[in-house]
Amino acid sequence: MSRSEDKRKVRYAVVGAGNLAQVAILPAFQNARENSELVALISGDEDKREAIGERHGIEFVGDYEDYETILESGEVDAVFIALPNNQHREYTERAAKAGVHVLCEKPMAIGEEDCEAMIRATREANVKLMIAYRLHFEEANLRAIEIATSGKLGDVRVFSSVFTQQVRPDDIRTHAELGGGVLYDMGPYCVNAARYLFQAEPEEVFAYAIKGQDGRSREVDETTFAVLRFPGDRLAQFVVSQGLAATGSYRILGTKGDLRVEPAYGYTEALVHHLTVDGETTETTFEKRDQFGPEIVYFSRCILEGKEPEPSGAEGLADVRVFEAILRSAQTGQPVKLTPYRRDQRPSMEQEIHKPAFKPPEPVKAPAPAQK
């Protein structure tokens, strides 16, 4: 019996010490203590390793060159990968080779080929792979699924979303070689929401992508607008931008009513439902909470109980194949049809895990992605 099975806790190494890791992922382990333990940190910055390791009492800290040594030490059961998008495949494959489970930030990767390689590597190594869709465990979005599928809104036919921010100059999201661009950064929230609210996969997309004009996003798409056609002539449209004022919302419209979720995607504020049925509008506020602790707790449960995670590699691939189609459409100016894709697992209220919000620590050499 391994140490993790004996203690009923999964021991994690967090790989990467950017802003998200520092202000959200690392502190969330305090809310995941029931079955998870933070034991290692991988970062290429010595100042970060020293300060963060001391702050969280992390036993093992190392450079990226120490990755295999830490993985093969027998002290780590799982990794939480919080690296630039272009490195997700490599660090997943290396973890799988060492027999270590993988929780990987979204987007899963920057192409279908990389996603398929990650799925194959973890399957062959008999380790779990989960993509970090935090909203699959958050009440406001899970309640929205419940409303959309309940018949309360009638036949739900349209999804519409806007998700934007002003990105900080020279952020990793502005660099093409790191897998930057707004579609891969903010697009996962809109595409994923459309898919889980419609409980289906898109059949065709049409899109426009615009590069930045002010020097920040000249290498990548600053603003992307897309229309997705789903079975039954249902339509989803969204705009994402890293060059517009900050906002984040979606709306689903049915034949009897509509639901607007605004704010919808963030983790630093309360999320709000604005539900209108038969001309009557009600507002429901879902208090701010920790959205990262729940996904860690859930993934640890899957490891300890031998269950397949719902937001698995197949879920990550489902989004990435849509992103690739969107980019092809934007490049060619033509609609792009998607090959059929079957996805039986969907998030539901059974996955809701409520953990209290915490005050994020001051990050070390890791400014927030958005300009103030």
UniProtKB/TrEMBL annotation:
The keyword Oxidoreductase applies. Residues 334-372 are annotated as: Disordered. Residues 143-259 form the GFO/IDH/MocA-like oxidoreductase domain. Residues 341-355 have a biased composition (Basic and acidic residues). Residues 10-133 form the Gfo/Idh/MocA-like oxidoreductase N-terminal domain. The keyword Oxidoreductase applies. Keywords: Oxidoreductase. One of its GO terms (molecular function) is oxidoreductase activity. Belongs to the Gfo/Idh/MocA family. This is Putative glucose-fructose oxidoreductase oxidoreductase protein. It comes from Chondromyces apiculatus DSM 436. The lineage of its organism: Bacteria, Pseudomonadati, Myxococcota, Polyangia, Polyangiales.
